Amino acid sequence: xxxxxxxxxxxxxxxxxxxxxxxxxxxxxxxxxxxxxxxxxxxxxxxxxxxxxxxxxxxxxxxxxxxxxxxxxxxxxxxxxxxxxxxxxxxxxxxxxxxxxxxxxxxxxxxxxxxxxxxxxxxxxxxxxxxxxxxxxxxxxxxxxxxxxxxxxxxxxxxxxxxxxxxxxxxxxxxxxxxxxxxxxxxxxxxxxxxxxxxxxxxxxxxxxxxxxxxxxxxxxxxxxxxxxxxxxxxxxxxxxxxxxxxxxxxxxxxxxxxxxxxxxxxxxxxxxxxxxxxxxxxxxxxxxxxxxxxxxxxxxxxxxxxxxxxxxxxxxxxxxxxxxxxxxxxxxxxxxxxxxxxxxxxxxxxxxx
Length: 354
Ligand SMILES: O=P(O)(O)OC[C@H]1O[C@](O)(CO)[C@@H](O)[C@@H]1O
What we know:
Blueprint: H1 2-8, H2 13-28, H3 41-48, H4 61-75, H5 91-98, H6 101-109, H7 118-131, H8 137-143, E1 150-153, H9 156-160, E2 169-172, H10 177-192, E3 199-202, H11 215-226, H12 230-245, E4 248-251, H13 267-274, E5 278-282, H14 283-291, H15 302-305, E6 313-318, H16 329-335, E7 346-352
Parallel strand pairs: 1-7, 2-3, 2-5, 3-4, 5-6
Antiparallel strand pairs: 6-7
Helix pairs in contact: 2-4, 5-11, 6-10, 7-10, 10-11, 10-12, 11-12
The chain binds 6-O-phosphono-beta-D-fructofuranose (F6P).
Domain Damage-control phosphatase ARMT1-like metal-binding: 42-329
Keywords: Hydrolase, Manganese, Metal-binding, Methyltransferase, Transferase
GO molecular function: metal ion binding; methyltransferase activity; phosphatase activity
């Protein structure tokens, strides 16, 4: 990943040296504190206090991944006044993904939506939002992604049955490019079918996990959509208007890049999500932060694992890590010992109300 970052942007020797030091520290060294004065310094000081000075290999994986991305941004001068201030080191990868043949195919598929029955449309937009999560650049770098084998839990009907109360729907997004386009199509469907009268879209405040969506990526995807013909262009236009008129709100709370799970949500975010009719959480990392990043027995009830969450929840996720709950014994027996938990070949839709 660090090599990709170096070849995607012509950083000078100083930045390249910082990245080389980060590689050496994270693979063989001990955790160093942040040495920048970015506005989030104080927050990170409390999240890192327990781990500074300890070997990286002893730190919890969820924490290590997040801190690695925070340190990577510092190393490329993202927070310091200078030429690289605010320059997203992953932007070239995200742009390439948005312009790729695979994304073009995903977007083209949305043109079929108007010709489907209402039930088929319901199923198609949920399916696109779930499997869009396969397109994840950090994951592709670490595994080389495989095909889609099937859902291990839930389905479109279970998902839609959750939308029977008034109030805003919150969607906590994951990756940019094709996945975000599918999420925007889902938001459009929520609004056009009257399942939601307002949607709040949460993205990351700063670049993260290579392909995670930031506000700049939302604009990039939206500009791409509105230039396309057909239904996908119409979806882009409606989302654009939704943002202009407040039916859709965009947020980038700092907690979405925090190295801790959702049990530690700060009060402002908790209070906001408490008013949600439903919160939709996309992707593997959000799932790990939702249920807790632990090797749970897979039969642990989903409702039990997410009982701390302040609103009804729908998790849409491709499985990319060992963490999974809410499966039944028969499904686990069918899946057997293979790499289904981590290969990206299986997905799930899980819902619950508090
Ligand atoms: O983009 P997503 O679906 O959150 O996936 C991110 C996942 O990819 C990895 O970074 C690498 O497999 C996992 O650690 C992480 O949970």
